[in-house]
Amino acid sequence: MTPAFVVQITTPKNFLLNGLWFGPKKPKQVLIWIHGLTSSMFSMHSVVQSLVNKNTAVVVFNNRGHDSVSKLKSTRGISYEAGSAHERFTDCVDDIQGAIDFVRKTGVKRIFLAGHSTGCQKAVYWASKKGAGVKGIVLLAPVSDYAGALKRHGAAKLSRIASYARKLVKSGKPNEFIPASLWPEELNDAQRFLSLYTPDSSEEIFTYIDPNKKPRALQKVKLPILVLWAQEDEFADRPASEATAWFEKHLKPSDTVLTVAGVGHGFKGGEGRVAKVVAEFMKER
Fold first, then answer.
1. Of 21, 142, 267, 280, which is most buried with the most CB atoms under 10 A?
2. Considering 203, 238, 273, which residue would you say is the last residue of a domain?
3. Residues 118, 120, 124, 126: is their CA dihedral positive or negative?
4. pLDDT one-digit tens code per residue, 70-89
């Protein structure tokens, strides 16, 4: 059991996000953890706890895409529909900036971001738009949701559902759910389905499904990047060697891409190895 402090983050656009601060109150550095799709600040704790030490605190928080359906509150007390089913991907910039601003106010200057799964897309998107005040970014299991869905369901099915979703958006119903009869995999409204599972959306950051497409958001990032790919990732559409080769091709020469052997998407059994590599990455920045 690892003790934690409860924190509340106010974003630049005045939304309230709940979080936990693991580790020392006055650390030398802080790693901000960005959870993945339908997840929350309570996920991946075995990895999170392995990253905490006497000099390093980890802040986990519920971004507005936590769980499938949730409520988002503003500082004015107004509630909004949120959760991964309703999330607008581009709002991640506000969420992440809020977490960074919160940590800065504690006096810590060495701040890093760590995204897991879809949290990787969010970390990269934030960095492509902002980037200031962070020393580096860790991407754990940065799989493309679109590529994974193509492998599981095929292009024809995704295209058919995307057409249905576009009709909802065009008729002024972007937040109407895609029927479970069409898409039983997870709950998504129309705009969110298009964000996750179409090739030209802002959320399709890791474009390895199309060898001719440049990952423009990824290539805009000037910060140091560490990629950790899970060798047995159950959500990946290709072998680890092919995925890591794509990242090596498109990242900066100074960035690092590694495969964590023998682990799945959640890195279970590899927590210690992850912590060691991340600690070294942070030390060098």
1. 142
2. 203
3. positive
4. 999 999 999 999 999 999 99
Q: Which two tokens stand for residue 66?
A: 């936590």
Same domain, 178 and 220: no
List, as one string, the DSSP characters of the chain: ---EEEEEEE-TTSEEEEEEEES-SS-SEEEEEE--TT--TTSSHHHHHHH-BTTEEEEEE--TT-SSSEEEEETTS-EEEESTTT--GGGHHHHHHHHHHHHHHTT--EEEEEEETHHHHHHHHHHHH--TT--EEEEES---HHHHHHHHH-HHHHHHHHHHHHHHHHTT-TTSBPPTTT--SS--BHHHHHHHHSTTSTT----TTSTT---HHHHH--S-EEEEEETT-TT-SS-HHHHHHHHHHHS-TTSEEEEETT--TT-TT-HHHHHHHHHHHHHT-
Q: Are 63 and 177 in the same domain?
A: no
pTM for the predicted model, two decimal places: 0.97
- Shared domain for 197 and 236, answered yes or no, is no
Same domain flag for 132 and 243: yes
Residues 227 and 248 in one domain: yes
For residue range 82-139, list pLDDT tens digits in order: 999 999 999 999 999 999 999 999 999 999 999 999 999 999 999 999 988 999 999 9
**Side chain identity, residue 66:** H
State the residue range of the domain holding 176. 146-203
